[in-house]
Amino acid sequence: MQLSGKTALITGAGSGIGRAIAVAFAREGAKVLLNDLSPAAEPLAHDLGGVYLKADLSDPEAVVGLARRALEHGPVDVLVNNAGLQRIHPVEEFPEETWGLMIQVLLTAPFQLIKYLLPGMKQKRWGRIINVSSLHGLVASPYKSAYISAKHGLMGLTKTVALEAAEHGITCNAICPAYVRTGIVESQIADQSRTLGIPESEVIEKVMLAPAAIKRLIEPEEVAEFALFLASDKASAITGSAQLMDLGWTAR
After folding, report:
1. Its domain of life (predicted)?
2. 179 is catalytic
3. pTM of the entire structure?
4. Edge-to-edge strand ranges of the sheet holding 242-245
5. How far apart are CA 15 and CA 222, in angstroms?
6. Calpha distance 189→2 (Å, rounded)
7. Are 36 and 13 in contact (CB under 8 A)?
8. What value does the mean pLDDT take over residues 4-13?
9. Among the options 52, 116, 143, 147, which is catalytic?
10. Closest of 168, 234, 178, 245 to residue 205, by C-alpha
11. What percent of the chain has pLDDT over 70?
12. pLDDT tier at 113, thresholds 50, 70, 90
């Protein structure tokens, strides 16, 4: 049981990557605190013997409240900043309200949670912070200016926290996957299939994953197993890193 006796807070835990991470962590003995706006996270938390903590990460005060409620269950040993969203517009048409929303959820909320949970980790002289970033934390694509700006910022935050926290036995890393099989991605595939008039398999291989060497979607469980490794004692020498799961995208 790699995480026996540990408490982990996972944001965006109601579906996709967050759900898979919660399941993997609970399997390895962690007490899991699941944050999500989706009611699907509540029965999952019950099934995993964990706790559901509803909070809207687009509200800065709610994020602070989430941190405080999490600490009511004891020090948080592992923080997984996973919650996300996507909006696509050309830069000159990008709504400023949407920009602000995405920066808050994807960058400011992780900063806030780290800020308020880090002291408890320092006190225990052990902690793991895992930021679920993206391939787009390292490269760019058109029409995703807010998402890519936030994910690049998250990489800077990851490195800074890693340097500040290392002497306290705390690591901070980012996982940077290419397209993962989630509800958001599958809806994008279906939309492009209809728009382009080609099968969904061709959308994946020839459109979305054209730059990738491996032509398939990543499964949420694959990301979860990587997160589990980073949360374990086996990864104590890894910090400040961008852990790529990019299907060979950046090898070119």
Report:
1. Bacteria
2. no
3. 0.95
4. 51-53, 31-35, 7-11, 78-81, 127-132, 170-177, 242-245
5. 14
6. 36
7. yes
8. 97
9. 147
10. 178
11. 100
12. very high
